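step: validate -> pass
step: tokenize input -> pass
step: predict -> running
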Amino acid sequence: MTNPSENKPENLESPPGPAGEILAFYLSQHPDNVGRKIEDIWQWDYQKLGGVHNYIQWLFPLLEKSRFNSEAPVLTEPVIAAFRSSNELKKRLGISFRVLLKYYGLECGYNEGKIKIIKSAEYPQRKKAWISPRNHNYLRITRILTSLTLLGLKNHAKAFLSCLEEIYQEEGTLIGIDTYTYWKNALKISPN
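step: predict -> pass
step: emit ->
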């Protein structure tokens, strides 16, 4: 995946308490609730990314508690403001995003200065891991879209949704209209 030594965070302060847990995790100052550092997760293989279910809430936090990982912290206004104002935090969120894109067989690039998410050469094989009726990755994707939008990477979320719309045109019967609607609505959320 990525080389952790190339991703050492600058020395930003994270506030004490639950709000600081997300920032401390993202800045590699503290592991998640089961002892994993963010760089460890960035190194996981596809099997681990698909099979472990209690890390996604740390990589892509939301405003509400997770039904699947009640130990993961939730976003607060100060945490959202910190992400939105810190290039370092946004950069590290982008790394998390690219790790999950790779799992889905997608990649992030640029076209005329705009972010573009496209299918990678691995997509035909990787789609088998996540495109099927009621797949748990559909919820993960909704979480990713929502978290990116809240934390200041809305352009990344828009590019991801654009790619997902193309995939939905091809795989709509497996994805379903309800899932597709959740994906579209994820970008309408506002932290205020």
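step: describe -> The mean pLDDT is 90.
step: cleanup -> pass
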